Automatic annotation (TrEMBL):
GO terms for biological process: TOR signaling. It comes from Anisodus acutangulus. This is TIP41-like protein. InterPro entries: Phosphatase_reg/MetRdx, TIP41-like. One of its GO terms (cellular component) is cytosol. Pfam families: TIP41. Transmembrane segments: none annotated. PANTHER family: GAF/PUTATIVE CYTOSKELETAL PROTEIN, TIP41-LIKE PROTEIN ISOFORM X1.
Length: 85
């Protein structure tokens, strides 16, 4: 899941959540949820020499590399599904 918020001339915010599912043997499976929050102001971007043209920031994949990470965490869920015979 990916969310981009852009308040033109004020703020840029990206929220990225990814799920990874690993299905193992002997009913041992894992789901990982990775969350990454990135955020900064347009003023902070321009002070680092990035362009102030709003059209430059229409592609989230380009923006993500320019925004600092505010929060990043990984959660792990271990589970086993019982087999019915």
């Amino acid at each position: 899941m990916f969310l981009q918020l852009r308040v033109d001339g004020v703020l840029m915010r990206l929220r990225d959540t990814r799920l990874h599912c690993f299905f193992g043997e002997h009913n041992k499976s894992v789901i990982l949820r990775e969350s990454c929050w990135r955020e900064t102001t347009f003023q902070a971007l321009s002070s680092k020499g990035y362009p102030s043209d709003l059209a430059t920031y229409s592609d989230p994949s380009i923006i993500a590399d320019r925004l600092p990470i505010v929060m990043q965490k990984t959660q792990k869920l271990n589970f086993g599904v019982p087999c019915k015979k």
